[in-house]
Amino acid sequence: MNTYACIPRKVPHRRKDKLVVNGNNYKNYSKLEKKWPDIYIEIEKLKDDRVNNFIDIISKKYKINKETLRKRYKKWIRLNKTCDGDKRGQQNKKFTDSEEKDLYECIVNVFINGKLYFDDECLKYIALAKWKEIYNTEDFKASNGWIYYFKYRWKLSTQRSKNTKVSDKINDEDVKNYVSLCVNLFKEYRNSNIFNMDETHWKITNKNINVIGIIGSENRPVICSNPKEGFTSIFIISLDGNMSKPVIILKGKTARCLKKIKGNSDKIRKKFSNSGWVTEEIIKSIFDDINVAVNNEKSILILDKYPVHTTDNVKGYAESKNISLIYVPTGRTGQNQPLDVGVNGPLKMAVQKIEKHGYINDPFYKPNINDSI
């Protein structure tokens, strides 16, 4: 049996006494020597000079299909010679280049750089408002085609948004002072007396937004555990690399909620609070542990500006335990909080991969709190 018998082949046939090979009926004219408007102007000159068969002449000169050239030229005439007759939506472009540039810069500076909501409907609204402001008319519609080509011309695209919390503006001077303070204190204290603390919320189920589904389906539901269920973990590590037992905080009103945790009792310290987040009492217990670890010597603790960390009650208790608190500048925990950068971030990425392997091995797998811990 011929292995290649099933592969379709190009079959030659005759048309008007010429041998033609079946192939792609659409020719790509993107590599023309001239742009389309220049070609149309050349046709206009031939017409003005009363040259016959001007379409045939230009067709042979630039190797363009005669019928294609004729249709595009007629479209160019129909659109009052303002469009190249090729790209859809161009006839709807009424702003000048400078006006479009002003519109683009407004979108970037105000909405994109400001991390504000802005979609196609917003673009349409602001374009219509700008048109009315400039020309005082309402003949511009800002159609879907215009929106598409505006984004294409200015290299904009629509993407899935990410929720971002509003935070205070980063102060470069505060960052500089923070780094300088750390450098000086690190020279005065032993590495074993310098600590870093960071807490983070762990969701039992990582919500994977992007999932594969059938094209055209309205939604793509995924069966999983309660996406909001989770716990708070606190890590404490000294500069010499001594990691304390992680503190696990569950949401509950009594210690009975801690019975959810099976095993691991020798590896973690279990706490609870009404909100499931860290409280002043939990922070004070951590200060006690640090004080015992350094035999009541002076020590340093680097932590972020979470509200519970900055209360007068917490600051006073830290002072009573010979602990100096150094706060990471606002908005810089992703760069200057060691545990956040070096442990929590990479660890959460690893957990997501482990969880995905669990789904692959068992399609009905549902992680629980002990799996996460």
For the structure shown, list the relevant keywords:
373 residues, alpha/beta, Nucleotidyltransferase, domain 5, 3 domains, six-stranded mixed β-sheet, two-stranded antiparallel sheet
Explain the overall architecture.
- The protein has three domains: 29-86, no CATH class; 92-153, no CATH class; 184-207 and 224-372, Nucleotidyltransferase, domain 5 (2-Layer Sandwich).
- The protein has helices spanning 36-48, 54-62, 66-78, 97-112, 120-135, 144-153, 172-188, 280-293, 312-320, 333-336, 338-361, 369-372; strands spanning 12-15, 18-21, 194-203, 230-238, 247-251, 269-273, 299-303, 323-327.
- Helix content is 40%, strand content 13%.
- The strands form two sheets. Strands 6-5-4-3-7-8 form a six-stranded mixed β-sheet, with helices on both faces. A two-stranded antiparallel ribbon has the order 1-2.
- Helix 8 (280-293) packs parallel to helix 9.
- A hairpin with an 8-residue loop joins strand 4 and strand 5 (247-251).
- It has 373 residues and is of the alpha/beta class.
List the helices and strands and how they pair.
Elements lengths: L11 E4 L2 E4 L14 H13 L5 H9 L3 H13 L18 H16 L7 H16 L8 H10 L18 H17 L5 E10 L26 E9 L8 E5 L17 E5 L6 H14 L5 E5 L8 H9 L2 E5 L5 H4 L1 H24 L7 H4 L1
Parallel strand pairs: 3-7, 5-6, 7-8
Antiparallel strand pairs: 1-2, 3-4, 4-5
Helix pairs in contact: 8-9
